[in-house]
Design goal:
- The chain is of the alpha+beta class.
- It has three domains: 2-304, alpha-galactosidase from lactobacil brevis (Beta-galactosidase, Chain A, domain 5, Distorted Sandwich); 321-610, TIM Barrel; 622-668 and 705-751, Golgi alpha-mannosidase II (Immunoglobulin-like).
- It contains 14 helices and 40 strands.
- Strands 6, 7, 8, 9, 11, 12, 14, 15, 19 and 20 form a ten-stranded antiparallel beta sheet that branches. The protein has an eight-stranded parallel β-barrel with strand order 21-22-23-26-27-28-29-30, surrounded by five helices.
């Protein structure tokens, strides 16, 4: 509910409260963002700054803005902290409260920016700027989050050039630590943790997109908070372009947070009567530590960001031909793969890059949509019919925002591409980006992608984008708006088509894309162990239902790591399972193992994709859990094993202490050839470690690993379930887990009736 009394505003529900007040001089004083409180608590939160700190400045006879925790600020009024607003060539002046309005719903954004949807209430605060402009701050209260955005109206008779306009600003009392997520191609989402100090921290992308370098989401926690307790606040932005956040503590102990479009090179001319809308910022609060914050964020995304048609809807298990074929395929190769994928249990066949124009490498063809008849003589519809006969739905890859200079499109319209201001041709993966601020470019993409989807009865689209932009500032923002318009025109009319967005993996993993694409290809790094970390770190801010996670070949093409197939499957289970390698290379035992994996995943798909997620205590390995209340699934993962390992336990959470549960570990197969010369101790014949017997055994036979089954109370399980012993070279026991490097287990915990 939204309450107001005596110039105090309170947005509150069972999970959180956000409170501020209008001071006697028209400033907005931030009071509280955290646990639910009452309107009468305003005075308890309000700062008592007395006479200030000496070197004060501010409008005569008024309070000194520098020392107030504010909801908005401006240059030139004596607040020397980070300003959320800047105008070129304007005498800076302050924003003062004018009036407010409440709505029992979301107030729609007018431009093509996406926004959170669903049940919510909105508070609109209107601030007046001395020069005659008005700034409208929208606060929307959802069940698990508060969102904020700003809209600037030019009510003057002169154009105004906006050089910075953040989506939100707030000053919170107290000290915080921050976590940001940074990286690069195939190294996404590496957490960086620091204390928020007096110099502040900037989390920014200027690549034209949200970027793998600095994900727009970040987390603030009170010192001492951990996975299960303490106050933690998650922030994010519903935007896919250049973003900026600065978090800085002041000497007086206020932490200022601003987030919005990056101001780098940003200039937006607002003509009289025009307005500019910022993207929406998202904030969630939890006093149940990082885990509680993540679960609140997951709920918010699953219920208010994901397109309605796909909310809580099971996602198909797909096969993607990219890592198996790259550009080298034809219809008969694809059909051979499809038949094998079907046998494994896959539901969708995704044809990745290389199906159009002269696209035989990444050097040519991008921008063209004519089917390459040498590879697909019967076109998209011919392939789709054959896939449908096999029993698979058809998914297709596109990279509509890019163009190769060696393409028919570029030869016809070189001016449709974005060129660097320097005049130097700046290529990324041999391509340029199309200028999506141009209507004719947007129309070209909408017409061609729509035509291919309809022709091929495509039920899934992988929308890729493989380079950084050369555009900065206003043009970069216009291109992002253009992209949103294009996505809305194509998929708004085809809501049943499942869209998976991708940008060389996770180079555009953000809430803006998730408003259109329910899932995102998490990373081009498909090495299972690396992937575990990427998915684990994504889980701080994004639910498992958004993470494309495929099993790929071993040894892996990027790390040469030879991860057991069981672990490759177990990691992909905690995401959207798919397979991506040449299935023609599969041995019969691998086929059987994958069939088992898919059968298991299908049985528990909804829990894996939409269950409540937890990162668990795991003294030696890494452990995560999903649960729908009735079924709880715990994954336990190891990297390098040690000799003479000690006892090991798992620590499931959120079980009912007094209830009895059955526990069963998932049956897993072991590759016999891994045991080399050790086989001679269990086989009746003498074998050479690298001889034909061991090699053939690896292809034809699998041994079952030990399994564990028991019944126990929730209380006992939560205090630690003692696991079967691990192999340590002192002999073989059928109850022993054969744990080599990169091993893992899955435990299924079910409420007994
Ligand atoms: C980059 C993507 O991340 C890959 O999965 C694949 O689709 C290639 N592009 C195709 O060019």
């Amino acid at each position: 509910m939204i309450l107001s009394d005596n110039n105090v505003f309170l947005l509150k529900n069972d999970n959180l409260a956000y409170m501020f007040r209008v001071t006697e001089h028209g400033n907005l004083e931030h009071l509280h963002f955290g646990a639910p409180v009452e309107l009468c608590d305003a005075d308890a939160f309000s700062v008592k700054y007395g006479t200030g700190w000496g070197s004060n400045s501010g409008p005569e006879g008024e309070e000194f803005p520098m020392y107030l925790p504010l909801e908005w600020s401006g240059l030139g009024t004596g607040d020397y902290r980070e300003s959320p607003t800047e105008f070129a060539g304007e005498d800076p002046a302050g924003f003062k409260f004018s009036h407010y309005k409440t709505y029992d719903e979301i107030v729609p954004i007018q431009c093509s920016l996406p926004q959170a949807k669903g049940k919510a209430e909105t508070l609109e605060i209107v601030l007046a700027y001395v020069g005659g402009m008005t700034l409208h701050l929208f606060y929307t209260l959802f069940d698990t989050a508060v969102t904020r955005r700003a809209v600037l109206y030019n009510n003057t008779d002169q154009p105004v050039t906006v050089t910075k306009l953040m989506s939100y600003m707030l000053d919170m009392q107290g000290e915080f630590e921050i976590t940001t997520f940074n990286g690069s191609w195939i190294a996404e989402m590496r957490p960086y943790r620091a204390e928020v100090g007096l110099s502040g921290i900037v989390n920014e992308s200027t690549t034209g997109f949200s970027s793998a370098m600095h994900n727009p989401g970040f987390i603030l926690n009170q010192p001492g908070a951990n996975e299960t307790s303490g106050e933690v606040i998650g922030f994010n932005l519903i935007y896919s372009g250049n973003h900026y956040a600065r978090i800085q503590r002041s000497h007086e102990g206020l932490t200022r947070i601003v987030q919005g479009i990056s101001p780098v090179d940003f200039e937006w001319e607002l003509k009289p009567a025009e307005f500019f809308e910022t993207p929406e910022g998202v904030m969630v609060y939890s006093n149940e530590g990082f885990g509680g914050m993540s679960r609140a964020m997951h709920r918010f995304i699953n219920e208010h960001i994901i397109p309605v048609t796909w909310q809580h809807k099971d996602r198909p298990i797909l096969y993607n031909d990219w890592e198996g074929c790259m550009f080298d395929f034809n219809e008969s190769k694809l059909l051979s793969l499809a038949k094998k994928a079907k046998k494994l249990g896959c539901e969708l066949f995704v044809l990745d890059d290389g199906w159009f124009g002269e696209r035989n490498s990444d050097k040519a063809g991008l921008g063209d949509y004519n089917v390459n008849k040498k590879k697909l003589p019967h076109g998209l519809s011919g392939l789709q019919k054959k896939l449908s006969d096999v029993g698979l739905a058809f998914g297709l890859w596109f990279e509509p925002e890019g163009v190769n200079p060696d393409s028919d499109l570029y030869r016809a319209h070189p001016d449709w591409a974005l060129h660097a201001n320097s005049g130097v041709t700046v290529l990324g993966r041999n391509e340029l980006l199309l200028d999506l601020s141009k209507q004719e470019v947007r129309d070209y993409i909408v017409e061609n992608v729509s035509r291919c989807i309809d022709e091929g009865k495509v039920s899934y689209v992988k929308w890729d984008m493989n380079r950084h932009s050369t555009a900065l500032g206003a043009i970069a923002h216009k291109c992002v708006l253009g992209l949103y318009e294009v996505l809305d025109r194509i998929f708004g009319e085809r809501p049943e088509v499942l869209l998976e967005s991708c940008s060389s993996g996770g180079n555009r993993f953000d809430l803006g894309m998730l408003c259109f694409s329910p899932q995102i290809w998490s990373s081009d790094d498909t090495d299972a162990i690396e992937r575990y970390h990427i998915q684990y770190n994504l889980s701080y801010l994004y639910p498992l239902s958004t993470m494309g996670a495929h099993v790929s070949a071993a040894p892996h093409s990027q790390t040469l790591r030879d991860t057991p197939l069981s672990t490759r499957g177990n990691i992909s289970f905690f995401g959207l399972l798919g397979y991506e390698f040449d299935l023609d290379d599969l041995s019969s035992v691998e086929t059987e193992e994958i069939m088992n994996q898919i059968e298991f995943y299908k049985e528990h798909r909804h829990v894996f994709q939409f269950g409540e997620f937890r990162r668990l205590r795991a003294p030696e390995g890494m452990s995560i859990q999903v649960s729908d209340g009735k079924t709880t699934i715990v994954g336990l993962f190891h990297e390098l094993v040690h000799a003479a390992p000690g006892y090991e336990r798992i620590f499931p959470e959120a079980l009912m202490p007094g209830k009895i549960y059955s526990v069963e570990s998932r049956k897993q197969l072991l590759n016999a050839s891994k045991f080399g010369g050790l086989l001679k101790f269990v086989l009746p014949v003498k074998v050479k470690p690298d001889g034909i017997v061991v090699r053939t055994a690896g292809k034809k036979y699998r041994m079952w690993d030990a399994t564990q089954a028991c019944s126990a109370s929730g209380a006992a399980l939560m205090s630690g379930l003692s696991l079967n012993a691990r192999f340590m070279g002192t002999g073989y026991d059928p109850q022993m887990r054969m744990q080599g490097d990169f091993s893992s287990n899955i435990y299924l915990i079910k409420e007994e009736s």
